[in-house]
Amino acid sequence: MNTTPPHPRPDKNTYFLLIALAARTRADCLGRRVGAVITREGRVLSTGYNGTPFGMPNCSEGGCHRCSRRDDDRLRGGAYDVCICVHAEQNALLTAARFGQQTLGASLTSTTQPCFGCLKEMLQAGITEVHYLHPWDPAEAYGDQALVAQYAALRARFATFAQVGDPALDTADLFGAFVKR
Fold it and tell me: Among this protein's residues, is 61 annotated catalytic?
């Protein structure tokens, strides 16, 4: 009896990252598409992707003012407080809550390093581990050392806050064969 698997089996962190990447295929953002998955004890609790709230027109349908005005420099890199879209991490947290899934002690894996607001929400929801594929530099994003310090303080509250996977392997056609265009 051959006990060698016919193909490589991903470790749990990579497996959850692949699920987050699959969730991202549902995102309709015209800018950055993000997917997330919340797990506890090695099991999936919920997934999320960024986009407009239920019942609202999608970004591609003009539902998001920021997406429809991508060329407006006043909205570039900011105005997130007035963006109608829900972040992937927020969507995963809200989906878990909607279906009664406890997030205390859970892990979250995202295709992109979570933002300041999502970190606050994850801490409040009891998430203890954060994994992400694509990193970004808070100093570059915020340009304010006090905000950079606060972001670092939020990060430090998680038992794990680490990059997982190789961003170079995240290609545009990763799930192309499965997604209608």
Answer: no
Cβ atoms within 10 A of the Cβ of 137, count?
A: 9
> What is the band of 108 on the pLDDT scale with cuts at 50, 70, 90?
very high
Quote the pTM value: 0.89
Cβ atoms within 10 Å of 142's Cβ, excluding its own: 16
Place of tokens 């060329």: 71
Q: What is the token pair recorded at 6?
A: 């016919």
Quote the crossing angle between the two packed helices 145-156 and 116-125, to the nearest 10°: 30
Q: Where are the alpha helices (H) located in 25-114, listed in sequence order?
A: 65-68, 88-98
Q: Round to whole Å and give the CA distance between 18 and 40.
A: 16
Catalytic residue among 41, 61, 89, 140: 89
Query: Does residue 4 register a pLDDT over 80?
Result: no
Strand (E) or helix (H) holding 141: helix 138-142
Nearest residue to 23 via CA among 36, 42, 40, 38: 36
> Is 107:127 a contact under the CB 8 Å cutoff?
yes
87, two tokens? 């972040």
Distance of CA 20 to the CA centre of its chain: 7
Q: What is the mean pLDDT of residues 32-43?
A: 96
Q: Could you give the 3-state DSSP secondary structure of residue 36?
A: strand
Helix, strand, or coil (residue 81)? helix
